[in-house]
Amino acid sequence: MANHMKIAMVGFRFACSTGERNTHVWEEYAKLYPHDEVHIFTGRRYLWDSWEKKLDPQPLSNLYVHQRPIWFSRWGQFKYMMPTMIWDLIRVRPDYIYAAEEPIQPFMTWMMAIYAVVTRTPYCTYTYENQYRKWWFPISLFEKVSVKMANKVVCASRKAEEILQEKYQLPGNHFVVFPETGIDLRVFSKKTLRKDREDTVLFMGRLLPEKGIKEMLAAKKILDKKGKKYKWIFVGSGEMQEYIKNNQGDNCELIPWIPREEVPSYLNRAKVFLYPSLQTPHWEEQFGYLMAESIACGTPVISTPNTGAKEILPEEWMFVPFGDSVNLAKRIETVMAMKDEFDWSAYLEKRFSLSTIAKKWHKLFMMSR
To answer: Is-cis flag, bond preceding 138, omega within 30?
Structure first.
């Protein structure tokens, strides 16, 4: 078997607001395995976003980023998929294809599966999906084809793996569980000692009801009444913005957006990071990279026991029951009073560093070949 491999990553996921995070692991891969060629095929923007995202990876001789325009119409994805991605793959002729989209994605993942079978190219797909859903036809067919035809299905969580195994009665070795990308521990690290930080509670993410926004503000109200007037910062946008504005009080700041490069400094300002996502009939927190990035900065996280948090958080005391504002307030007060200078670097290096995840991808490619 030749050492040289051409790996093609195909998906909209690289063009989203966190596309930079997804690209970093392939930069690390290209450095660790210089004999491999790494090709990222993505759009200039993510699905229905109105703005474009330009990916600027490190200048490496074996890493190539192919960003293509996306035409949005009734057949937008079809137009994007057929004349550009297929042609690019024919031109590059990869030895392995990673379909960086959910198995239910009708054109991207399914067409990658068809291309891979026709050209006898091994491929894998990735899923975050952790809710047992019986998809409607033809989405159910796309998922079935994509999952069964893949050499491997990479799952973000053990729950996602269990769901697909139950659905399609596939053997355990058809699946592997690890994060899609890793944490850059050179960027996300403790820059400010926790004892030197203000008593600040931070939430960062989409401002939606299922993120536990009402529960956080209810906990804030309980603490304010007790005289624990901590500084609260909400960073993000979404339908709950007005609710926060109307209930924030004088010790709360709402910031609609910050550049990605400023995220580590905000995590280094806080003493507590909140992620109390709720469960709904059709959704549960799938992973939550911000939780890993937070503890990398020495900032403890308080979360509900959602699927994503259970994959990431290292300590049992970080969990509170779903929808329980009283317990959330008590836990915030307890963690705020802790004098510990938390260091989870060894834990993160072993599980979530860029080099760890890059090596997992390489092992998967070699096994599948």
So the answer is: yes
Instruction: Give tens-digit pLDDT for 197-206.
Output: 999 999 999 9
Query: Own/partner pairs for 71-78, CB < 8 Å, 24+ apart?
Result: 72/48, 77/106, 77/107, 77/108, 78/107
Evaluated on CA atoms 82, 130, 123, 5, the torsion sign reads positive
pTM more than 0.85: yes
Please state, in angstroms and rounded to a whole number, the distance separating the CA atoms of residues 174 and 158: 13
Q: Say whether 195 sits in a helix, a strand or coil.
A: helix
User: What is the rounded distance in angstroms from the CA atom of residue 223 to the CA atom of residue 50?
Assistant: 40
Which tens digits make up the pLDDT trace of 62-75?
A: 999 988 776 554 44
Q: Where are the beta strands (DSSP E) in 161-315?
A: 175-177, 200-204, 231-235, 252-255, 272-275, 301-303
- The answer to whether residues 55 and 25 touch, using CB atoms and an 8 Å cutoff, is no
Distance CA 137, CA 108 (A): 17
- Distance of CA 299 to CAs 91, 199, 236, 296, 338, Å? 46, 12, 19, 7, 11
3-state secondary structure 293-343: HHHHCCCCEEECCCHHHHHHCCCHHHECCCCCHHHHHHHHHHHHHCCCCCC
